[in-house]
């Protein structure tokens, strides 16, 4: 994630890992900016999306899965460089959210077209964006941002990564696309459930204000 603090910062276990602490400290010393790291996540998403759409080669699917994880690493490090590295900027909240929405959409729409169901990719991207909208809306009315749900960002990307790796094997065995179809369907359904549960939680919290 980007420049989040307190209740608006996504809880990520790997933030306390030695590799993340060391790498973020090195980036802060080297002159890297959190906003630049946020934008780099979109670059990785674009590379991954291109690999997914333009080739079905097993190695390409593995590389696309790696791109998903590199995008997540950027999402982790930008916030650490901003907060722990002392490089927070006033425009940080903008870079915190917008690149994430673009990266999600690039990956999910590409996966939909790659499996032959473009509409499923668009639906997954729409619902993924809606989960974020509900979260940010809660923060805009003074509530802690709600990162809960069965298909929050880390789980979406974990499912997509698993789908891409499974697709690399499926391509070798049968040439089908069931792995990506299933991944997209699970992401869409899970995102819908997450939207519903977050909205219910938001409504209850607002009533208690």
Automatic annotation (TrEMBL):
Keywords: Membrane, Transferase, Transmembrane, Transmembrane helix. It is an enzyme of class 2 (transferase). GO terms for molecular function: transferase activity. The lineage of its organism: Bacteria, Pseudomonadati, Pseudomonadota, Alphaproteobacteria, Hyphomicrobiales. InterPro entries: CDP-OH_PTrfase_TM_dom. It comes from Rhizobium brockwellii. This is CDP-alcohol phosphatidyltransferase family protein. Its EC number is 2.7.8.-. The chain crosses the membrane at residues 39-68, 106-136, 180-199.
